[in-house]
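This entry is passed on directly below:
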Amino acid sequence: MLKKQYLKSKPVCKVTFSLPKEVIENASEVKVLGDFNNWNWEEGATMKAKKAAFETTLELEAGRSYEFRYLIDQAIWENDHAADDYIPSPYYGIDNSVVVLDTVTISKPVKKKVATKKAAPKKTTTVKAAKTATASKDNLKKIEGIGPKIEKLFNDAGISTFAALAKAKKTTLKNVLNAAGPRFKMHDPTTWTEQAKLAAKGEWEKLETLQKELKGGKRK
């Protein structure tokens, strides 16, 4: 189970990870491993035994998503059954849990005096530009096989709309996945451009029909 507390003073979220004791028996040590500690047992966050669960709290940067799992006595892996999402791991048939953190806007103190009259129009321009940039993005997670992590990789690579994804070559998409590390090489983007073409045209019924033929973004 996940509990989130966003801080007001900085773009950080306190995430409490909780694994019910009923899931495991006679565990001596439980840690949460994930993107935030390099999936390393030595760097893993030790979870303390409470009355009904093992718990630990981490401060994570907001506006991102993180993959994670629980490791019990360095031998047994468990997912969080209340995670925000699940993404296939590099190991066949196994998914990683995902925690998705919203972007946090930190309020700045209002200045009593404006430094110069010319500064005001610049702020307005910046706000308009930001709104335009946000509006130009599509929800790529509607494409089966693409989760929050892969969507961010594509956004960083300049692929943020269905139209851009539809025009992208398969080799380009594979290069983005391969550059992100071995945990993403297993993903197959073969049908992603096909799905994106339908989404870009607003042909949602046809997209839904196509996705019924897919599993994890791949044809069954």
